[in-house]
DNA sequence: ATGTTC
């Protein structure tokens, strides 16, 4: 795989064979995946063959290997020129994302309540494979309401306050969700999981603002140095997973009919403007709403514990997905075009002044929330004007070693002891799950966000450090 | 990521 450095932190994969556009990798030399261990750059090139793709097949600095598309990939297709949508370009965990809450508590006041807080959260936050949820929905009609209206429905039912919705991407619910496009099996899997973290890299952390990079923007986001925060990272659980599985199968069948050939069957896709494309987007939107309701219910669970232990509240800073396809209008070669922007392990980062931002965030830009690996920093970023890659940036640290490799480097018990010795309280779900998430298996998130900023994708606003982790 | 292989 030949990479040409065409600008600082920007490498090009030249067009060849059936690639319709070049690949563009935003990275430092150190962050470029090792070709011997990770085939994600080959995946960047594969994505460039998709019908209707415009600009380039992009990779963020945290890129690593994924299903079909790389994780940390951005690809936009032209809806009105036969552009396709691909479930693998969104990922199995549809609308997996991050929510940040700001507590009215200073980190100096945390130690005296920390153990009570962590024990409360340990009991209140359902997590791990299967294993319970805050909200148990008994009938399909109620789940359909979640699928149609996401956080809006949760707030309507008393799980949150209207202001929360102003701080959610899409004001808490994606339009055009259609529960009828969601299979019965997906519904069955999702019924008992609204308000649960799941497993893998999902977590709820108690954090503190450790450094503010941009005072003005941080203030607009409601953040100041020393402030205690809560970060929630989770997705659409079994429901989103089943929807992805269902539509990959459907599109594997319809691709020959549509005359679409792809270099990897995991790139199964259909024209956005086709029955299958529309059905997938409607089901994907339903899963996106499910994921938002999931984060809203976990927010309420955390709020109950904070109220009981500290007497204080948690204000929503923002909630943003990093696994989603969206129909957006962007200017391409001087012309406004309707694009299907796939962001898989990539975060939308709207620039200041964007019309989709609520009025009070508009001068600052959209918060992009970047969780680090366990025990390391997380970041709040904001969008910048004129950025490449359709207003997208990185989504996290990015894996460098598989889960299995990770478990060979450390035992969960030892990792917990190490984190506790560094002042980070740990409430895990399983020892194995903890070991799989050792920071040794990830890139350095600080390097990732520095490169993302250097590449002109975003600006850093604040760095958060973990004080307690409730691990999925 | 995931009832970690319908």
From TrEMBL:
<keyword id="KW-0464">Manganese</keyword>
<feature type="binding site">
    <location>
        <position position="202"/>
    </location>
    <ligand>
        <name>Mn(2+) 1</name>
    </ligand>
</feature>
<protein>
    <recommendedName>
        <fullName>tRNA-splicing ligase RtcB</fullName>
        <ecNumber>6.5.1.-</ecNumber>
    </recommendedName>
</protein>
<comment type="similarity">
    <text>Belongs to the RtcB family.</text>
</comment>
<feature type="binding site">
    <location>
        <begin position="371"/>
        <end position="374"/>
    </location>
    <ligand>
        <name>GMP</name>
    </ligand>
</feature>
<keyword id="KW-0342">GTP-binding</keyword>
<dbReference type="Pfam" id="PF01139">
    <property type="entry name" value="RtcB"/>
</dbReference>
<dbReference type="GO" id="GO:0046872">
    <property type="term" value="F:metal ion binding"/>
</dbReference>
<feature type="binding site">
    <location>
        <position position="471"/>
    </location>
    <ligand>
        <name>GMP</name>
    </ligand>
</feature>
<feature type="binding site">
    <location>
        <position position="322"/>
    </location>
    <ligand>
        <name>Mn(2+) 2</name>
    </ligand>
</feature>
<dbReference type="GO" id="GO:0170057">
    <property type="term" value="F:RNA ligase (GTP) activity"/>
</dbReference>
<dbReference type="GO" id="GO:0042245">
    <property type="term" value="P:RNA repair"/>
</dbReference>
<feature type="binding site">
    <location>
        <position position="93"/>
    </location>
    <ligand>
        <name>Mn(2+) 1</name>
    </ligand>
</feature>
<feature type="binding site">
    <location>
        <position position="233"/>
    </location>
    <ligand>
        <name>Mn(2+) 2</name>
    </ligand>
</feature>
<dbReference type="GO" id="GO:0003972">
    <property type="term" value="F:RNA ligase (ATP) activity"/>
</dbReference>
<feature type="binding site">
    <location>
        <position position="378"/>
    </location>
    <ligand>
        <name>GMP</name>
    </ligand>
</feature>
<dbReference type="InterPro" id="IPR001233">
    <property type="entry name" value="RtcB"/>
</dbReference>
<dbReference type="GO" id="GO:0005525">
    <property type="term" value="F:GTP binding"/>
</dbReference>
<dbReference type="GO" id="GO:0006396">
    <property type="term" value="P:RNA processing"/>
</dbReference>
<keyword id="KW-0436">Ligase</keyword>
<keyword id="KW-0479">Metal-binding</keyword>
<keyword id="KW-0692">RNA repair</keyword>
<feature type="binding site">
    <location>
        <begin position="322"/>
        <end position="323"/>
    </location>
    <ligand>
        <name>GMP</name>
    </ligand>
</feature>
<dbReference type="InterPro" id="IPR036025">
    <property type="entry name" value="RtcB-like_sf"/>
</dbReference>
<feature type="binding site">
    <location>
        <begin position="201"/>
        <end position="205"/>
    </location>
    <ligand>
        <name>GMP</name>
    </ligand>
</feature>
<feature type="active site" description="GMP-histidine intermediate">
    <location>
        <position position="395"/>
    </location>
</feature>
<comment type="subunit">
    <text>Monomer.</text>
</comment>
<keyword id="KW-0547">Nucleotide-binding</keyword>
<feature type="binding site">
    <location>
        <begin position="395"/>
        <end position="398"/>
    </location>
    <ligand>
        <name>GMP</name>
    </ligand>
</feature>
């Amino acid at each position: 795989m030949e990479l040409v450095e065409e600008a600082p932190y920007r490498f090009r994969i030249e067009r060849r064979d059936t690639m319709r556009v070049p690949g563009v990798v935003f990275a430092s030399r150190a962050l470029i995946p090792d070709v011997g261990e990770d085939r994600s750059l080959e995946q960047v090139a594969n994505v460039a063959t998709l019908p209707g793709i415009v600009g380039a097949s992009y990779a963020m600095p945290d890129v690593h290997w994924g299903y079909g598309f790389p994780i940390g990939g951005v690809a936009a297709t032209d809806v009105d020129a036969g552009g396709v949508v691909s479930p693998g370009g969104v990922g199995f965990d549809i609308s997996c994302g991050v929510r940040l809450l700001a507590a009215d508590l200073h980190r100096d006041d945390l130690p005296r309540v920390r153990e009570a807080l962590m024990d409360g959260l340990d009991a209140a936050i359902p997590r791990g494979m299967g294993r319970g949820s805050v909200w148990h929905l008994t009938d399909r009609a109620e789940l359909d309401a979640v699928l149609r209206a996401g956080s809006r429905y949760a707030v309507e039912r008393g799980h949150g306050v209207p202001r929360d919705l102003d701080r959610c991407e899409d004001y808490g619910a994606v339009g055009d969700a259609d529960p009828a496009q969601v299979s019965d099996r997906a519904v069955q899997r999702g019924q008992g999981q609204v308000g649960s973290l799941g497993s893998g890299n999902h977590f709820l952390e108690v954090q503190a603002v450790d450094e503010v990079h941009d005072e003005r923007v941080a203030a607009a986001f409601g953040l100041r140095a020393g402030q205690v925060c809560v970060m929630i990272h989770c997705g659409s659980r079994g429901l989103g997973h089943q929807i992805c599985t269902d539509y990959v199968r459907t599109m594997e069948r319809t691709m020959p009919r549509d005359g679409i050939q792809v270099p990897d069957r995991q790139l199964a896709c259909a024209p956005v403007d086709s029955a299958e494309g529309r059905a997938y987007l409607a089901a994907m939107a339903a899963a996106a709403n499910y994921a938002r309701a999931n984060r809203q219910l976990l927010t309420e669970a955390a709020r109950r514990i904070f109220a009981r232990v500290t007497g204080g509240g948690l204000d929503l800073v923002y909630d943003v997905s990093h696994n989603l396809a969206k129909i957006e209008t962007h200017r391409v070669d001087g012309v406004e075009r309707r694009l299907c922007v796939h962001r898989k392990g990539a975060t939308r980062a709207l620039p200041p002044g964007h019309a989709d931002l609520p009025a009070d965030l508009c001068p600052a830009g959209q918060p992009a929330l970047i969780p680090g690996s366990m025990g390391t920093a997380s970041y709040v970023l904001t969008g910048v004007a004129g950025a490449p890659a359709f207003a997208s940036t990185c989504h996290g640290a990015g894996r460098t070693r598989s889960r299995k490799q990770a478990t060979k480097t450390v035992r969960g018990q030892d990792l917990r002891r190490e984190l506790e010795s560094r002042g980070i309280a740990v409430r895990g779900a399983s020892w194995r799950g903890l070991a799989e998430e050792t920071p040794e298996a990830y890139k350095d998130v600080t390097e990732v966000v520095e490169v993302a900023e250097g590449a002109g994708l975003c600006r850093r606003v604040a760095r958060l450090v973990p004080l307690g982790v409730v691990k999925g």
